[in-house]
Amino acid sequence: MVKVLTFDDVNVDGKTVLLRVDINSPLDPGTKAFLDDTRIQAILPTLQRLVKARVIVLAHQSRPGKNDFTSTLGHSRELGRLLGRQVKWVEDIHGPNAMAAIEGLEPGEILMLNNVRMDEEETSTSEDIDAMAETSLVQHLASVADVFVNDAFACAHRATPSIVGFTHLLPCVAGELMGDELKKLGEALESPNRPCLAVLGGVKVNDSIQVADNMLRNGIADEVWPTGGVANLLLDLAGIDIGDVNRSFLKNELGDHWMTTVGQAKALINDHGDQIHLPVDVAANVEGNRVDMSIDNLPLEAPLFDMGLASIRHLSNAIKSAGTVILNGPAGVFELNDFALGTVEMLNACAESDAYVVVGGGHTATLVAKRGLASKMGHVSTGGGACLDFIAGRTLPAIASLEASAQSFSMDVSVTAEKNV
User: 339 and 410, same structural domain?
Assistant: First the structure.
């Protein structure tokens, strides 16, 4: 289990707290109005724990070069609306205006700095933690803060100054959202109710193969049910010819990861083939029409866009009989109505199941929210890539930073908590 500092370990009342969040949100292209404030709402429990602190919020919106790369002024207003109180904002990150605004904060006040990715150090620094600790961004902000709180789980797989630069300079605490993600994902992976199913789809095939590898080889999952592009790759490697059009698509999507992913997938089939449940039928897009067919009728030179009806039934029944389900990625091209059936029925089965269902972030979490099923799931992660990395067994820089800081400051956190009251 991950060992990090929490609000139970550090007294933040009266302190100046630097809070890193991920409130990167979909915006209307024209008006920049928020289309979804889910991520902003997700940090409210952490802010409730900081009501007596001076809070400096570090956040980002998109990245340079993208249409939705903008300031965080709108985010401060939206956060203020949700909280029912003012959230101050400054068009600066760690320059004179920001430092002056921080100096003027009173306990209980919140100041949001501008988009941290507008600072070149945040986007161009090497992944060396010592180098990141020496950046002006980190040095300036660390000099005026008592505690760093990381509540940006969706950025946990990123190594940037605002995520890991404070590791050895300040006590680094997991916020409520971060702690909740680590607890629920950790419990699902360390002591899942049996049988434990990993249902893996989407187009990030290399990530899903690594997740399957970690979960099968470490005895976490009893069964893996691949869907989407993951299923297409495994079908092909198992000797079912999926056709050149589908094989070429996978090669293009995987790019430089093709050979590595194929090698890992072949090894999984060889070592754990009896635990991998491949589709028995598929739905092809034949001139814009859905055509369901048995895998025995492949190859067909048409793109495979969904599971077939029999495979959908098999997966739904397995989900309803499971103890734990780790779900990531849609089952097909759900954006097209004719090929959304597999994804819709998969999510419905999860909602109806008595299993503890963990839904990965990204598209899957968005789909669950849009269908109003979030309350029927055990845990819907706020992290896309971060969640995938976690269940694939990869080290997340933000978590490693929190663990290292806990070791550095665990002996004198109580002193730190008292001396600045």
Answer: no
Residues 6 or more apart whose CB falls under 8 angstroms from that of 52 comprise 12, 13, 14, 107, 108
240 shares a domain with 153:
no
Question: What burial letters (b/e) apply to 187-218, b meaning 16+ CB within 10 Å?
Answer: bbbeebeeebbbbbbbbbbbbbbbbbbbbbee
- What's the total number of domains in the chain? 2
CA-CA distance, 359 to 390, in Å (whole number)?
Answer: 13
Which CB contacts under 8 angstroms, 24+ apart, belong to 188-191?
188/324, 188/326, 188/356, 188/358, 188/378, 188/379, 189/215, 189/220, 189/326, 189/391, 190/1
Contact assessment for residue 382 and residue 177, using Cβ atoms and an 8 Å cutoff? yes
Residues 121 and 257 occupy one common structural domain: no
- In this structure, are 82 and 199 located in the same domain? no
- pTM, full prediction: 0.89
Asked if residue 361 belongs to a domain, the reply is no
Both tokens assigned to 32: 């920049």
CATH code of 92's domain: 3.40.50.1260
Measured distance CA(327)–CA(331) in Å, rounded: 10
Which among 241, 220, 219 is positioned nearest to 232, based on CA atoms?
241
81 and 141 in a single domain? The answer is yes
Strands in 304-307's sheet, in edge-to-edge order, are: 289-294, 281-286, 304-307
Domain that residue 320 falls in: 194-354
Residue in 363, 117, 305, 336 with CA at minimum distance from that of residue 347: 363
**Residues 133 and 209 reside in one and the same domain:** no
Average pLDDT (67-84) is: 95
137 shares its domain with 30: yes
Confidence of residue 35 (pLDDT cuts 50, 70, 90): confident
Residue 3 in any domain: the answer is no
Domain limit, last residue, from 329, 354, 379: 354
Is residue 328 within 8 A of residue 201, CB to CB? The reply is yes
pLDDT for residue 415 is more than 50:
no
Phi/psi of residue 276, nearest 5 degrees? -100, 120
pLDDT, residue 417, reads 42
- In whole angstroms, give the CA distance from residue 17 to residue 388: 29
How far apart CA 94 and CA 74 sit, in angstroms, is 19
Average per-residue pLDDT in the chain? 93
Beta bridge partners of 416: none
